[in-house]
Amino acid sequence: MFAFIHLIGAWLTGKLYEQWKKQPLEHTTWFFLLFGALLPDVDFLLDWTLGTEFHRTFTHSLLFVVAAPVVAYVILKLWHSPEAPTAALALGMGITTHLLLDMIASHGVPLFWPSLLHVSFTSVGYFDPTTPSFLNSSPEVVRRTFKVAIVDMAAGAAWIFWLWWKKKVTF
Question: Are 26 and 86 in contact (CB under 8 A)?
Fold first, then answer.
């Protein structure tokens, strides 16, 4: 999955929560929820800029689902933020939606990292870490990835258009 799909997943999660609780989420909560939906792919930026192979390791695990909100909570508490508990929970929920979406549309995620066991909704299996990443893939894999990225951009553009149509955003 790519960024827009992860954002839409987190946004839908936030909207469902608002419906359930019958009250709107605060702006800070929305920020941490949407930020959490993108945060697990920060490792892809390391791969891209440093030439490493970290993508889909620690940041796609249950350990990260717990560690990132705890770190956020501690930092926000040190800044005396009253939103620390809510922000940390929203961050964890955003990360969780990211992992769930990746489990739908891929070979899975290493929920139990550092184990190489990858879990998806269709399979559980060991992932060979020597498998080339997108950055070292064949032209066919790169082409297929770009096609998925184009669909992702279209979904994001449709989302923004829908928000504009419903007068939720203005330009």
Answer: yes
CA distance readout (Å), 95 to 18, 65, 101, 111, 171: 18, 6, 10, 12, 29
Backbone dihedral angles phi then psi of residue 109, each to the nearest 5 degrees: -130, 150
Q: Is beta strand 117-119 parallel, antiparallel or unpaired with respect to 124-126?
A: antiparallel
Tell me if residue 21 falls in helix, strand or coil.
Answer: helix
Q: Which residues contact 24 (CB under 8 A, 6 or more apart)?
A: 18
DSSP-based three-state secondary structure for 48? helix
Entry pTM: 0.80
First to last CA, the chain: 27
What tens digit of pLDDT does each residue of 47-106 get?
777 776 777 788 999 999 999 999 999 999 999 999 999 999 999 999 999 999 999 977
Q: Tokens 């951009």 identify what position?
A: 153
DSSP at 109: B
CB proximity list for 65: less than 8 A, separation 6 or greater = 92, 95, 96, 99
Q: What is the pLDDT of residues 124-149, one digit of tens each?
A: 888 766 665 655 667 787 777 777 77
Q: Are 116 and 99 in contact (CB under 8 A)?
A: no
